[in-house]
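Aim 2 progress update. The chain analyzed this quarter is reproduced below.
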Amino acid sequence: MTRHLLHCQQYKDLLRRMAGYEGDAYSSTGLKLIDDLMGWSSARDREVMSKDRLKEKVLRIIIVGNLSFSFADNPEFVDLLNDAYPDMPAPARKTVVDFLHAKATLTKAELRELLSKLDSKVSLALDVWVTRTGLAFLGTTSPMALICG
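Predicted structure tokens:
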């Protein structure tokens, strides 16, 4: 059966339709999947890709996939980015790490400024744990209690 499926044109056509391909063009289903993946609600929402936006997209892929930062240097991933965005250099591991540090520093400063403007008390609850396989997690909650006084 497996040998038959390897050469069966009807089966290959079915797989192409299920993947969203029709011939050489994308079907509307394939485009919808890409729109959902990239967070676009319509074709007009697509922003022009910039170096910082590409770094952020790569960082989001790494974070969501729980991948190491060295994934950014994966030759196949770099080839994919070079094919998709030939005018932009693919961000390297160090570039992505530096981008994350810059974003974290900026976010801390914004949060500090926001909290300093409050007239109430803020409590933070932090919890850190590590799985048996060595995967670390950090849980954070910050219930803001507004105290009128």
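The longest helix spans residues 93-116. The two ends are 77 Å apart (CA to CA). These observations will guide the mutagenesis experiments scheduled for the next reporting period.
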